[in-house]
Amino acid sequence: MTIILTLILIIAAIVPTGRIYAVSDTFARITSDYAYLYASPNLTIQDNVICFLENTYFVEITLDYDTQFYKAIYNGVGGYVAKKDVTKIIGTPTKPYPVATISTISSKCYLRSTPKITTENIVSVIAENTNGLKYIGKVYGEEGIDYHGNLWYYVEYYGVRGYVYSEYINHISAIAINTEEVQPAISVNKNPTPITNPECGIIIIILSIPAIGIIIFMYRAPNPKPKTVKSIKKQKRVKKIDYDELL
Question: Is the confidence at residue 19, as pLDDT, over 50?
Fold first, then answer.
């Protein structure tokens, strides 16, 4: 029994209690053409999309919110991203967000809090022929002018963010695909089990073989047959005969 307990203690000391990786999982790469930055962690709420996320670029994760969402920052704007649309990476990308500038047409237009035409959502008036609007993203909203589509740009104008209808945009610089090479982060399993960590299971099996062998040997080892009263008398008689022969 002492040997078995010793083996168990050895196994407990050797089997790894967790995997440790020297990685930074602050950033995640956008891996879907249909990834969005959400205002709240809900996929079903109407008007919950802030803007599209440009595929191949990155989001900065600030919180592992739940099983579906990360809380994140994209191009300076906070929101939520679906975990299924991004992949965590090691380190910090050199160009995490798309860089583009926008110029408007030769008439003033409105910067709006939502991608809709209404008097309640005007946050600023953009002067005509404005250059250098910071591009954040784009989104599909209300069709501002009949038969002119429903594309809106989410921009920053003198520190104020809002939406501009695409028909009031004169030019937007090209957004290139981000070809920066990054290494995906490996998930950390702090409490591995033989199921979640195959290496742990293999070690347990290997180190358990000697203990199992000892247990089997202990149970199968032949026990000496107990002596009966008859056999004891016979043994005494034999010894007496041997003593008589010596005389």
Answer: no
Separation between Cα atoms, residue 133 and residue 127, nearest integer Å: 11
For the chain, which domains are there?
1-17+191-247 (no CATH), 101-172 (2.30.30.40)
The residue written with tokens 């033989």 in the block is 194
Return the pLDDT at 226.
Answer: 56
pTM (two decimals): 0.67
Residue pLDDT, tens place only, 72-92: 999 999 999 999 999 999 999
Place of tokens 């990308």: 93
Nearest of 131, 116, 119 to residue 163 by alpha carbon? 116
What pLDDT does 27 receive?
97
Spatial separation of the C-alpha atoms in residues 109 and 130, rounded to whole Å: 10
Q: How far is CA 52 from CA 12, 15, 155, in A?
A: 50, 46, 12
Cα 129–chain centre separation = 44
Positive or negative, the Cα torsion across 35, 40, 44, 46?
Answer: negative
Q: What's phi and psi for 225, nearest 5 deg? A: -70, 125
pLDDT digits (tens, 9 = 90+) for 88-139: 999 999 999 999 999 999 898 999 999 999 999 999 999 999 998 999 999 9
Helix/strand/coil (H/E/C) assignment for every residue in 160-210: EEEEEEHHHEEEECCCCCCCCCCCECCCCCCCCCCCCCHHHHHHHHHHHHH
